[in-house]
Amino acid sequence: MSTPQRIKEAALREFAQYGYEGARLERIARAAGVHTAQIHYYFRNKRGLYEAVQSALKPPSLEEVLVPLQEINKPLPDRLQDFYERFYAVVQELAFREDRLPLMPSLFLSPKPLELPEWVEALKGAQHYGLIRPMPIRFILAQQWGIALLPVWYNEPRDTWEKYYREEAPRLFWESVKRV
Q: Using CA atoms, how far apart are residues 53 and 14, in angstroms rounded to an integer?
């Protein structure tokens, strides 16, 4: 791990424990195994370090993840498959590692981002033609969201995530909503 990254990791823990006012550059430097001069070299001051840590914590955008759901010329299964593959890429970007707190951006706490007119209409159309169960659309979206976050919530080994998102998640979704 690079020196700036070690400093940011130590700063994340320090700011989480003591807040901005209580955080001390000396403790951050000691935890990162560097001299305080290196913190000043890379980040100028405590404010610069704090802003660098904050910018690293910004959640990735879900806009790219949602694009496949809006592609009205694609069949529903293909749209869902693409959605889960893109969702996997975003989850991979997040720092879910044992050495720091799991960072669950607020955008992951609700299925509201899935309430796209094109996707909702596609699901309603599938219900109209008897392809999926006649259950409330929000319930279907909540299932889709829950399936997307399952490996994160249950802290599954990361080496299993790719297979899950590419194979199991789409299958689980269709099994849960298709009309039997």
A: 11
